[in-house]
User: Fold Integrase from Haemonchus contortus.
Amino acid sequence: MLGISLYTQVQKGTRSSELRRRTKIRDAADYAKKSKITWAGHVMRYSDDRWTRAVTNWIPRGIKRTPGRPPTRWSDFFTKALNERNVDLRAPGAINRRLTGRQVTGLI
Assistant:
């Protein structure tokens, strides 16, 4: 796209992030993360018990897992991503609930 060979890139010390910026190509991992967060926000706004929301919150029971690392939940990704950004988990109107003293739990 830019006509820069790997040799030229190494010689000039050009970083891959700089090439992505110049070509306006998005990083695949960042794009996937943003898409997943966008989808979660879309699903969280559902007010009824749709299939999508039910599957998102579903935890399989009666399945024997191999020993080792504990299973990760779908919501663990969002908790980690929001903690990296120092953002609190909150629902619409959470500020009002905090002011009135009610506790906000079970958001994800």
